[in-house]
Write a structure and sequence with these properties.
Layout lengths: L5 E6 L18 H35 L3 H20 L8 H11 L34 E4 L2 E4 L5 H8 L13 H9 L28 H25 L5 H7 L5 H29 L13 H17 L1 E3 L5 E3 L3 H8 L1 H27 L3 H4 L5 H28 L5 E4 L1 H4 L8
Antiparallel strand pairs: 1-6, 2-3, 4-5
Length: 427
């Protein structure tokens, strides 16, 4: 879901730094840096789109001929699609157009009972969400209060306009990657034990239907996947030559473009990834707080967030077809002011990549992320905490870079788990 937007105390004062004698004199201007940032955004979202289109083709094959093989192929396509998309998250927070859109495609966590059948352990009531077990796939009419939703036809409009955040509840996630993930994997009922969701392919087989309403489940999966494609096409256009997101950042007054870059880097690093996505779940030892909870893919989503931040700071991006986009970067700007600070930022980023890489490796060879955050798992907890510590140190390094540039004060997104841990878990 949309993040809990609590501003942290990481406020960077505006100040001027004397340029050291060994600073680069050939540093790029800010305009070229921001233009390169927009180019990377366009390429990265284009990759997210092309990988999602492969997912769309795999989903169509699953619906046309449900089998273990076509379900496996659709799951693999979903996993592949996450890598480029997660890298785009470095463009959040500093770009309002991205922030206003992001909840359509990557909102989490979700109350999956809104969409489909759930296990009895899920419960049949939530006083905070009257859609908690609405089960749109099983019910052609959804009634709440004095309003009735006609769900007889499952369409993109129904999902986006009627069900997404229905009743003003952020946990009512009807669209995006995680709704698709749930439809491909089903619930992960293993807690902090091994195993992901295990939805059978026969949930889509109208001739041998399990779970009931296989035709409507297929219609939902088709609609939500097609909607993801439309949303990604829209965002690619926003970063194109005449796109609104590109125009907003490249035409920002003063240091606005560079501010947008660092706001995104610092907020994703600190409040969002270190705080809301990792530390919160670690404190609660709660697998429901893991990002890709149905597929057990959280380690990859976290890792590619970090790769995305490195892309932006260095002004480099490797496309899914093997091309490298490289140009002027905020790293160049910082190095022109202070080579030492730029070196510190680069070192902090590489440390974060290494710590997240260790988490990723453990998830692939020892135990999955939801097991790592389990209570009593000291070794797994330590690996996750090391990633948090690296991200917090990275955010502090970004602060130093901002100060070196002498640009206006920036506030990073915060998280109770980092800023006010005693409030975590309290009503």
């Amino acid at each position: 879901m949309f993040t809990r937007k609590i501003l942290s105390s990481l406020v960077v004062p505006a100040l001027l730094i004397t340029v050291p004698h060994n600073a680069r004199a050939d540093a790029p201007n800010a305009a070229s840096v921001v233009s390169q940032y927009a180019d990377i955004a366009e390429a990265n979202y284009s990759d997210a789109l092309s990988s999602a289109q492969k997912l769309q083709a795999a989903v169509d094959s699953l619906i046309a001929k449900p089998s273990d093989a076509t379900l496996k192929a659709a799951r693999e396509a979903w996993l592949a699609a996450r890598a480029p998309y997660q890298q785009t998250e470095a463009f959040r927070f500093g770009n309002p157009i991205v922030d206003d859109w992001e909840g359509k495609v990557n909102a989490w966590p979700l109350d999956e009972g809104l969409i489909d059948y759930v296990a009895g352990t899920y419960g049949d009531d939530n006083p905070e969400n009257e859609f908690y077990v609405a089960n749109v796939i099983a019910n052609e009419k959804i009634t709440f209060g004095s309003k009735e939703i006609d769900a007889s036809k499952i369409t993109a409009a129904l999902l986006a306009d009627e069900l997404q955040e229905a009743g003003g509840v952020e946990a009512n996630v009807a669209t995006g990657y995680h709704a698709i993930e749930f439809l491909l994997w089903g619930q992960d009922l293993n807690g902090t034990g091994p195993g992901a969701g295990a939805r059978p392919a026969t949930d889509y087989d109208t001739k041998n239907c399990t779970g009931g309403h296989c035709d409507r489940r297929a219609a939902y999966l088709k609609a939500v996947t097609d909607l993801l494609i439309d949303d990604l096409k829209w965002m690619v256009a926003q970063w194109g030559k005449d796109g609104s997101a590109r125009k907003a950042v490249v035409s920002a007054e003063g240091d606005g473009g560079v501010q947008a870059i660092f706001t995104g880097l610092g907020s994703l690093s600190y409040g969002e990834l270190a705080g809301e996505r990792i530390k919160l779940g670690l404190m609660l030892h709660d697998p429901e707080e893991e990002h890709d909870c149905f597929s057990d893919n959280t380690h990859n989503s976290h890792y590619y967030d970090v790769v995305g931040m490195r892309n932006v700071y260095l002004g480099e991006y490797s496309t899914v077809d093997g091309k490298t986009i490289k140009g002027p970067s905020v790293s160049d700007l910082v190095r022109a002011k202070s080579p030492e600070i730029d070196a510190d930022v680069r070192a902090a980023i590489e440390n974060t990549v290494a710590k997240m890489g260790a988490l990723k490796k453990r998830a692939e060879t020892v135990e999955r992320y939801d097991q790592m955050i389990g209570q009593g798992n000291a070794e797994g907890n330590a690996v996750v905490q090391a990633a948090v510590d690296a991200l917090v140190a990275q955010a502090k390094a970004f602060e130093k870079a901002i100060a070196a540039l002498g640009i206006s004060a920036i506030q990073f997104e915060g998280s109770d788990s980092l800023d006010n841990p005693t409030a975590v878990g309290n009503p």
